[in-house]
Specification:
six-stranded antiparallel beta sheet, 7 helices, alpha+beta
């Protein structure tokens, strides 16, 4: 019994160390990206790709704030999504284009806007919450199933007190199933981005 408990404790610590090593690798990559590129589109694309690769997540998105002008209302525009054939095929299934994803800022029911309004992360098990009114519930269900994503976590991005946008990760397990180390890893990652 004591040996089993000790083995479980060591195993748990090893898992936490493995997660910590992954986050350090991602942080190193993000640091390299930000130091080598001044182009926001290129930087954000490399960030989502590295997060998905290093942390084995099925989905990462970055939305940037676009201010209102004569031609359009203020909105969050999807600027980066991890490169995935599965993601592209999934959007083909619902007959929509990733490049068309825009969420108007006045649509305050949307979880992305809630992240910015409340200045804190938001968690949901329904993709519709982050992509409404762009998607229907049927579209969201198809995408979740195809991408095997159960939870979406949106993090507001600020720089110098100014709203930049929102970073979203999609994970293949429920929020309740995330370990303490995984939660810490995500929170730490976002503080660097």
């Amino acid at each position: 019994d004591m040996l089993t408990q000790a083995t479980q404790a060591v195993y748990k610590k090893n898992v936490e160390l493995a997660i910590r090593n992954k986050i350090l690798s991602v942080l190193r990559t993000i640091y390299d990206i930000t130091m080598s590129s001044v182009d926001i589109s290129e930087s954000s694309q490399r960030i989502v790709d590295s997060v998905v690769k290093e942390l084995s997540m099925p989905l990462a998105l970055i939305f940037l704030n676009e201010n209102q002008n004569e031609d359009q209302k203020a909105r969050l525009r999807l600027v980066s999504v991890n490169q995935s054939a599965k993601l592209e095929q999934s959007f083909v299934l619902i007959q929509k284009f990733v490049s068309d994803v825009n969420i108007e800022r006045e649509y305050t029911e949307n979880l992305l806007n809630q992240s910015l309004i409340k200045k804190e992360k938001q968690v949901t098990g329904n993709m519709l919450d982050i992509l409404m009114p762009f998607l229907t519930q049927k579209d969201a269900d198809i995408l979740e199933s195809e991408l095997k994503v159960k939870t979406f976590i949106s993090y507001p991005l600020y720089f110098g007190g100014r709203e930049l946008g929102v970073f979203v990760v999609g994970i293949g397990k429920t929020a309740e199933d995330l370990s303490r180390a995984e939660n810490m890893t995500l929170d730490e990652l976002i503080s660097v981005i």
